[in-house]
Write a structure and sequence with these properties.
This protein is an all-alpha fold. It has helices at residues 2-7, 10-13, 17-37, 57-72.
């Protein structure tokens, strides 16, 4: 909730707390399903409760290193067509 307040987005501030509380469980379910359906898809895990890539340059650097490592192992970037 503190990050929502910090961002100050009206839409986010109107969200029901129960919905926000359910999100982590729904996310875990979705990720488990994704891994089952697409086992060869590289996944980079970043715990948003432990990193602050907006305020801490070293956190952003750590994320960029993870992305670079995944790309070096053969992951590809999704480039949507507009």
């Amino acid at each position: 909730m503190s990050r929502i307040e910090l961002r100050g987005r009206v839409m986010e501030q109107k969200m029901v707390p129960q919905y926000l509380g359910q999100l982590p469980e729904d996310y875990e379910t979705a990720m488990s399903n994704w891994i089952s359906l697409y086992p060869n898809t590289p996944i980079i895990n970043i715990n948003g409760d432990e990193v602050d890539f907006v305020k801490k340059a070293q956190d952003l650097d750590a994320i960029l290193i993870k992305i670079d490592q995944a790309l070096q192992k053969g992951a590809t970037c999704f480039e949507p067509t507009r």
